[in-house]
Amino acid sequence: MRFSVTLGAGGSGRDPAGLAALATLAEDAGWDAFFLEDYLSYRDLPTYDAWICLAAIAAATTRIRIGTTVTPLPRRQPWELAAQAVAVDHLSGGRLILGVGSGAGDDPAVAAVASSMSVAERSTRLDEGLQVVTALWTGARVDHHGRHYRLDGLRLAAVPVQRPRIPIWVGGDLRRPGVRRRLAHWDGACVYRERALDPGDVHDIVATIRAAGREPAEYDIKVSGNPGLLREFAAAGATWWGAWIPPGDPGEAREAIAAGPPRL
To answer: What is the mean pLDDT of residues 56-72?
Structure first.
């Protein structure tokens, strides 16, 4: 099992330079990944674009994986996200993980820029957006005439460092059918429930991907919370455990990161 920290890019000490310093601290303390929540506006705090922050983090670190958990794709243009992800993948030397979701209905920024979108529309935009992103990552000309997006011969010649592509982890509520369907199609799970996941939920995810003909050994499952169940999580099939560090006192964030990951 590997260990990550997740922070929102908002609040004191969470600007690009401050997050790069925290990521360097995490790398030195033995963490395996440093993830950012991707919010446009975070709890009325000064908030910074997650992808600009990831670029700063990529330049400041050498080993840890970096990424978003998660980017709400329906409020972004998929071709722009495709290009941003490739740039960060190159800057990091192939360490990027892209976590995606449809966007939380109670996120004020999602409501502000996508107020006309129903839950169903956000879901279909996410699925179609992922088709566009992964097609553009091939470096080939893309002609796509879908329900939400149209591309006529767009080609992004820069392709990811990672092969066959940047890993895509699916976020969202594990209870939703659309989330469960995506789990079987992409590369990893960083889902949630109304409570912290338990080992039974991990068994559920493993059963879902096996039923789709996927090999669990080639799939990542990230859980958070319940640190006393690390061995049970690992036995169930979880490959990552993550600590969320809430906004607040910058010294407390540094202290939590400097303590390093838990021990199995």
So the answer is: 97
